[in-house]
Design brief:
Largest sheet: 3 strands, antiparallel
Structural class: mainly alpha
Order of helices and strands: EHHHEHHHHEHEEHHHH
Number of strands: 5
Helix content: 55-70%
Number of helices: 12
Radius of gyration: 17 Å
Shape: globular
Length: about 230
Amino acid sequence: MIFLGKNMWYIWKKINDMGNLDIVVIIIIGANILMSLKGFNDFSFFERYKFNIGGIRRGEQIRMLTSAFLHVDMMHLFFNMFTLYFFAPVVLSFLGDIKFLIVYFGSLFVGNLFSLFFHKDEYYYSAVGASGAVSGVIYAGILFRPDMSLYLMFIPIPIPAYIFGIGYLLYSIFGMKNKVGNIGHDAHFGGAAGGYVITLILAPWLFQQNLLMIGLLAIPIIILFVLQRLGKL
């Protein structure tokens, strides 16, 4: 689990001073909760709308969207929504509602496209979760505030956001290559990469303010591209 550091407190306080979370975040969290609860209690619903290579190849492209609103269990749902709860205000404070939605859903689709690409021949491969979209929001937040500190659960040492971002994607590459755990590392990586590219398109002024950080955060994406071209993934 990830927590914002103290030098991001002024943004978080500003959002709280304005009242509740932005309506778009409330709607996204609500949709995730409602669909996930439905999936927990209705196996056929879960099977019909989860990400599944065979289903998508049969023409059920709706799974590319709906799978991101389903979760395996309450803990999976909680971690994704809790992370979104903390990072969404950072991105919203810079982009506003409409562009935030572009980042969220753009990252969602790019994450699932990565999964589709890397598992295209695994007919029974399945996945669920908002992790790709949330990863995109995290990476967007890091682009805007690379100087913020992040705290991981059980690790009480502040981690600079840009170090966390690079490490997160390098670990995702490791997870993809070695099939670590029952985790969609490709969707995480794709979502973060999608958030990175989409944010730079929506906020090109970042090239003038944070060019070095943009370059550093691109390193894992370049590494993945090279490994894929060399057939190492």
